[in-house]
Structure formats: structure tokens, C-alpha cells
């Protein structure tokens, strides 16, 4: 099945650049020129991936991402010339799955697209179970949905995969580099900040008190654990 | 010739009469009200004269290890021969060094016949918490000598003058800091803009080059040409930006040279218009010219300025007709005949508030259109290049109706203005 990618940029030359590279790989490409159009197209066209510029008129990329995350967990890659650490963290914090800096090489861009799409594919559910419970938390593997007190929680594709890794290892520590490698890919094992941001976002969504988490607990210097709960 | 020195002795405060009290009150008010230091000092000296007769007054301020007169007036005798009068510089030096008031009497030749040669000069220090800042000199010609109570009155007045000077220094310092702050903000914005402006073409060059270099893909010839054209254009853009940065820094350091030669200005403008039409097929650009016109100037630089103005018209008044005119003027800059070139667009215009600053280095009209790229260097470079030719560039703009840039160039910018009427005689 052809995957559909929405590219968003106010510079026609960036749109053309991404379009050419994506089409030649067999992706279907749709375009938006600002954040407002992007939000609308995500709702209407249900693409498989959004590539989002930041500095745009009407609605910038960060604002657009914030709105998209209000109703969708579609994978989003931010593609921006804003490369300060605070910009990167802000993008990831708002729920971006990856952050690519302009100028980029076409090969690198394609590799990132493939990696994000790979992560987004529904992972296989842990053997034998279709529902997993952890306190007020419920994960429906078949539908890839997460509930807290029976209320659905929107997770990005990446966040869902991080959660699944912890669920599958419940009661055991998952080291940070393993999480990075399994969720993001080999080339990300050193990229700690992307993991911190994802963990922090997951806690915001899943924990009653994100500072004293019960579902995702930090094992300092090692990694993270979802503690085994005694019934 | 004889000099006599009196060191004033004070015996506590002197009782003031009603007139003196009124004058002191008025002086106090004048120093508090008048923002302009020179006007304030004029008011003060006239008020002082009602209670303390003197013929001239000089304010010296200590600067860089010497004292400099910052204010001087002749109010009474001696207006006919100001240069021969005593202005008390030596006394002021003594007062500054010693930090106390001093009074001297000078008797020059013929002092019995010429009152101007009998001089009583009173100097009082301008004191501040960090030392003596200068001195105020009161000169009186032909006597009588200053009395002790007059000296004390003078000292009180000098305190008022000192307040004025201190306030002026503070105002200047605040203004200097504010200017520095504004420049720093402009520079910070400039760095952000420049890095964006540099990265933007670089991003396309990198992106399209690596696209063409992809090993896993063969691009058809048409697509290859499309990508290479983009790379070429973006390289040009980068080149233009780098040229601007270099020009701007050369202009700033005075290292940019104008290579004068005979320029056929009408032809030069026609060529610019033809080139512009070639690049922008749909642009309505018209040239109105007086006919053949020769000046001495740097053709490359004049072209650069006119093209920059046209490109601004395209950027900020997109699509509106651009009129380029050239006419000879009898009364050009540098007091020579000259030529006026205007570039007029019919776009949104610039409001007066911003128009005054568009030639400033790094300045960009805020929020005009965020999408329009620029560094705030173009018009700065234009102005500097025109001024280097001995010319002037101005702008007229009516919001909603468009903007006109007006360049006046002398026939020969190498010929300097003849000396004479531009020297101002300050003590005439």
C-alpha cells in the first residue's frame, strides 16, 4: 500500500526538493504552505507522516504540531533551520517524532523518513495478550490504543513504542541505549535527549503525578522500568 | 603691568536682600526648567547680572587632563574687542587644581586710560563628589573689585551651574547608552537574519546537490536541469549576500574605493532597465530620461545602487510599475551642476516613522512583510556609495501611494566644494 506523506513548508523550493525525493521512493506526496493548511490536511487526508517546517506564516510549525497532537498521533518530523537545543527540545516536547536540521542531505532525509515510518508501524503485541493493565492504565494491543481510567490517551507513534518496550519488560529495567536502539534505530543510541523528552511526555499523559511516577520509573544511570504490580 | 592676588576669606553665610533672593530663586527655576544647556546658561547669566555685575563669563570643563571652555559670553563691556579680553584660562587652571575660589586683579599698560586693561577676574570651582570638574570665570573690567558677599553669591550660582552640567552629562550618557543598546539590538537581529539568509540558499544547494548525487536514483534530463538551475540561482543569491556583507564592512572601515571614470549615465540606466526586463518579464518598468548625460563616477557602483533600489521596489512593492527618471539639475550637491536619478514604485509605501531609519546599517522596517528576505544592508550600502561620490540619496514616501528614492550626483564627485561659506565663526 502506498504511504502518503504530507510536506509542509512556505518555501516552494523545499517542497519541490522533498517531493522529488519522496516520489522517487514511491511515496504519495501532498503539500501545505503553512501550519494552518497542515492541520486541516492531517484531518482530511489522514497521511502516514507529516514533515513540518517551523518558520511559516499564519501558523508556525510548533503551533501546528500542538494542534495536530490534540487529535492525532500521526508521526511528525520537524524539518527546520532552527537548530538551537531549545528549538529541538521544544519540537520533541510538543510530540515530534524526529527533528531534522536544514541544510540536510537528501540521503539522510530519506533514511529518517524510513526510520520514522518503520517505528510507526503497529508493533506486534506481546505474546498471548490483547489487553495489558497497570494500575489505572490499560493498553489495547489490537487497536494500539492506550486508556487511563477508561479515557483514551493520544500517544504519538514513538511514545506508543516506548511504552510497549516497557510493558513487554514489565518488572525489568530497560537500559536507555536499548530503548533508543529498539525504538528509534541504531543511529540514535547516543541521542539521550530525544528519549528524555519522550519519557517526560509519556509521564505527563499517563501519571497522576509526573514527578512521582508509578508507571514509568527512572533507574538512575541505567534506564527505565515499569514496576511489576502485585495484585 | 602688575598682578595682585587676593585670596577671598569667608566669614559664614551672607544675608541676602530681597532682590538677590528673587534672582536666586529664578536661577534655580531656570536650571530646573530649561533642557537645553546653552539656553539655560544664557538665562542664568542674564539673571545673575541683576545682582552681580560682570562683563564676561566663561565656563571651563575639565576634560582629558586639560580644561576646555564650553560656554562663553560677553554681557557688558568689551564686546568690540572680544579677542583681546581676559578669558581667565590660567586662573581657571589654578581653581581646578586647588579646588577653591580665587580672585585676581590685572593691570595692563594704560590701565588708567583703558578700563578694559584693569581686570578683576573671579574664578569659582565646579565641584562634584568625585572631584573638581571645572571652573566658572567672571570677568569685570575697570572695577570695582568683587566684594566678599559677591564672591559668595557667585559661588552659590556656580553650584547651580554645576547642577546643570552634571545633569547634561547624565542626559548625554543616557543617550549614548540608549544608542549603544539600539545598535546592539540591531546587531543581534542582524546576526540572526544573516545566519538565516546564508543558510537558506545553502540549504537548497546542499539539498538539491545531494538529491542529484543519490546513488539509488536516476533523474531524467529535464529534472536534472531543473535542479541544477535552482543550485545555480541559489549560488548567485549567496554570492550577492556575501558581496553585500563585504561591501558593508569595507564601507565601514573606509577601505572601499570609488574608481572614477566617464559614465554615460543615460546609457547605463537603459542597460539596467533592459537587464531588469530580461529577468522579470511581467514587470512594468519605464525610463524617463533627459537625453545624453555624462558624469564622472564609478559605473559599477552606480549600477549597484540603482539595481538595489529597483530590486527593493520589486520586493516591497511587488508588481506595481517602477518609474526610473534621470534629469540634469543646475544646483546639484557639492555646489556643482549635477544629475538627479529617481526610482519610484507604487507599492504600499513606508510610514514616516520608519522612513527616517531605512538608510541605517542593519535597520529593517519591522513587520512590513516577514516573508521578504533582507539583511538591512542594501540601503546602507546605497547611501554610503552615493555619499562617496559626493552625492545625496533621500526618500519620499506616502503610505498607500508608493516610495520614491531620489539620488543627486554631482557632475564630478572628485571636485571638492570650494572653501568659504561653510566655516562658521562662533565668536563673531
Write a short abstract of this structure.
The complex is a heterodimer of chains A (231) and B (428). Chain A has helices at residues 12-23, 35-45, 61-69, 85-93, 106-120, 157-168, 176-184, 192-206, and strands at residues 4-8, 28-32, 49-52, 76-80, 98-101, 131-134, 137-140, 145-148, 151-153, 173-175, 217-219, 223-225. By secondary structure, chain A is an alpha/beta fold.
Chain-wise SSE layout:
The complex is a heterodimer of chains A (231) and B (428).
Chain A: E1 4-8, H1 12-23, E2 28-32, H2 35-45, E3 49-52, H3 61-69, E4 76-80, H4 85-93, E5 98-101, H5 106-120, E6 131-134, E7 137-140, E8 145-148, E9 151-153, H6 157-168, E10 173-175, H7 176-184, H8 192-206, E11 217-219, E12 223-225
Parallel strand pairs in A: 1-2, 1-3, 3-4, 4-5
Antiparallel strand pairs in A: 6-7, 7-8, 8-9, 10-12, 11-12
Helix pairs in contact in A: 2-3, 6-7, 6-8
Chain B: E1 2-6, H1 18-33, H2 37-48, E2 56-63, E3 66-74, H3 89-98, E4 102-107, E5 118-128, E6 131-141, H4 148-213, H5 221-253, E7 261-264, H6 265-279, E8 285-289, E9 294-297, H7 299-316, E10 322-329, E11 338-344, H8 352-355, H9 378-388, E12 392-398, E13 402-410
Parallel strand pairs in B: 8-10
Antiparallel strand pairs in B: 1-4, 2-3, 2-6, 4-5, 5-6, 7-9, 10-11, 11-13, 12-13
Helix pairs in contact in B: 1-2, 1-4, 2-4, 4-5, 5-9, 6-7, 7-9
